[in-house]
Structure prediction request, 181 residues.
Amino acid sequence: METIYLIRHCQTTGQEPEAGLTEQGERDARLLADRLGGLDIGCVVTSPYLRAVASAVPFCAKHTVPMETDPRLKERVLSGEPVADWKERLAASFDDVHARLEGGESSAEAAARGAAVVEELFARPGQAAAVFTHGNLMALLLRHYTGAFGYEDWRQLTNPDVYRLDRAGDGVRVQRLDWRP
Prediction:
């Protein structure tokens, strides 16, 4: 594949793995299915978290595209315990990608597992792929491929959000797409 659409899930009811979509999130998932329908997407790979799967299902059902889940696309765990100043800790993790809170995962570790999925998809022959994931992991993947995506960029991500990644020689071109019709 030469093209991968990296997609952040639609608006959700919460952050736990079993959190579903809000009514707005369900509407946006249907709109996203329509918008993505014009693209040559032959497979969907999604985080196993319900909000990511629920964001992908309307597209897969409408366009008869197979879906698989991959645990490497789950959201990054910042800490094993709730952290009151989590936004400050998250911001700092963009500067020190090897820092890890107790029970959590460093930015470098999360980016590596997500990039492994993307690279495996780039190596597959065939049509484009759609990858449904989460905000922090998406930001870390975009940083991995652009070298310049930081905390403030993460704050600007929407639910959903869509980026197109194109293999270009030894690199990857990244473009944000307007998914709304």
Remarks:
- Helices lie at 23-36, 50-63, 86-95, 107-123, 135-146, 151-156.
- The chain is about 40% helix and 20% strand.
